[in-house]
Amino acid sequence: MSDRVKEFRLKREELNEQVLSRDNINIKRFFSLDTAVYNDGALDTKTKELLGLVASVVLRCDDCITYHTIRVREVGLTDEEFDEVMSIALVVRGSITIPHIRQAVKLWKEIEN
Amino acid sequence: MSDRVKEFRLKREELNEQVLSRDNINIKRFFSLDTAVYNDGALDTKTKELLGLVASVVLRCDDCITYHTIRVREVGLTDEEFDEVMSIALVVRGSITIPHIRQAVKLWKEIEN
Amino acid sequence: MSDRVKEFRLKREELNEQVLSRDNINIKRFFSLDTAVYNDGALDTKTKELLGLVASVVLRCDDCITYHTIRVREVGLTDEEFDEVMSIALVVRGSITIPHIRQAVKLWKEIEN
Amino acid sequence: MSDRVKEFRLKREELNEQVLSRDNINIKRFFSLDTAVYNDGALDTKTKELLGLVASVVLRCDDCITYHTIRVREVGLTDEEFDEVMSIALVVRGSITIPHIRQAVKLWKEIEN
Amino acid sequence: MSDRVKEFRLKREELNEQVLSRDNINIKRFFSLDTAVYNDGALDTKTKELLGLVASVVLRCDDCITYHTIRVREVGLTDEEFDEVMSIALVVRGSITIPHIRQAVKLWKEIEN
Amino acid sequence: MSDRVKEFRLKREELNEQVLSRDNINIKRFFSLDTAVYNDGALDTKTKELLGLVASVVLRCDDCITYHTIRVREVGLTDEEFDEVMSIALVVRGSITIPHIRQAVKLWKEIEN
Description:
- 6 copies of one chain form a homohexamer.
- By secondary structure, chain A is mainly alpha-helical.
- Chain A has 6 helices and no strands.
- Chain A has helices at 3-20, 25-36, 45-58, 62-74, 79-93, 98-112.
- The longest helix of chain A is centred in the first third of the chain and has 18 residues, at 3-20.
- Chain A is globular.
- Chain A binds chain B through residues 30, 33-34, 37-38, 41-43, 47-48, 50-52, 54-56, 58-59, 78, 80-81, 83-85, 87-89, 91-93, and chain B through 30, 33-34, 37-38, 41-43, 47-48, 50-52, 54-56, 58-59, 78, 80-81, 83-85, 87-89, 91-93.
């Protein structure tokens, strides 16, 4: 696991704890729902993480892209599969996604090694 | 194939022909690219259509949702798989997607029969 | 309650039932969360409905605007208060909201009588 | 001027009057600003209307697209110029704009005659 | 007032001056309108700032979130009220807002002290 | 050409090469389409770059704004023309664009010298 991935996770967990420590029941319920929808079910986790990744790119959310790029790597996405997800996001949402795709590709190459 | 699906397709094709008949080379190239990215590759067509569907819901594009809902039905998506795609879109993009999910579910039930 | 409001509610309930009858636990949990966040709490329901209304306009969701416009009327919003919410949405999100504000104002006048 | 254009304008003016009759000073000021930015200046009205048109397509606002399509026709946009604006919007914002571009092209052909 | 808040304000004012010094009358008019809509009226400033805050989160504008978070603190928002605004934004707009809510909560805690 | 512009271009080219080196044919085709739509045609390059700039601001893409701001400067946009593009983007898309317009104006002043 690269330093960048470690750092991303640490910061993410620290901030999530800050949010969850505020004791707002609805925010807590949302967070557990956000975990639940990606669990294995009729669709497996890999497919669900792909859905999360493509949604993150078309919505242009860099933090979400980083999270799901790491996740799809963990569940065994191949290089070509990754590129095909990017190509769909690019065609659906247009050139406005290019800056985000550049970052996703850069991260993908880093965590590949 | 229900009447609604037939009508949707006819109207879509008619309008696509109007657009393509204008002879703008870049628009034509975009349209063929838009077909190409969903073809079987490292990821199969079913997975790619799921990516198209989730992107359509989070981007709240009813016309696109109709198109991809019909397509995922054709490639054999099950009821439970469909619901899981909707649940991810709902959590990623929030209550603002509910009006679109209502329409998607209504269409899904129609084409199921 | 005007015919338009009655019809909107009937259709909304019918479609919500279709969605909820599908027995996807995460979708159900999301729907109850979507009710819970508008309940009286540290902020009262009126203020929360205003938040829902302004969010609906800046996100340009006509169905959501209709729902929250009816709700803020029920909880006693005045004409001037309604206009001020619209003015904030308009300035935050720009002229792109005007078609939606036109519909909101039209509905507001209808349910006023 | 086609019937559809006449009808669009009548309805638009009627609703605008409803909005402006509410006497919210900030909404009125916004509306006059919305007119002012398209006036001849360092850039001429035609160029500014093109900017309004491309913005409307990438933001997927059908009402705005109708308005600016009529306007660019009035200020003398040619067929090829219209198509090039559409091609830029399509590439910037992706396939999600296609349903809106279909409507724009349909309207363009109607008002051409 | 924390250093971060001071710095944010200084930079914001400096850049606003750059924009306003350009002498485009319409931009100037927009900026004064942007101030005017938050002034006390039928709705008080606190409620209006809450509207600005929720709009900023659902539109995922970090700079706007920082500005309105500082403002709602100044006008006396409590911890629980702040959390309830965040919970509504989260449910309306989904998990895509979480990275922005993390930043908002972090800032809120900083300026609390 | 300022240091900031040079650096922006170097980084952009480096990342583009990473993306294109992945040998996904559809991504490559999209990239060449993205160049083609801005070429001289019925509309000249300057007008097309203005369309790209206004689209970038209303879509709030800082990287795209930087790119098109540099481009419009190269093709001879004047100060007043630049401000008028910004004023249209601001009115179309509202105060949410202000943080991006601040950055665009700052960059414009830098590359002016």
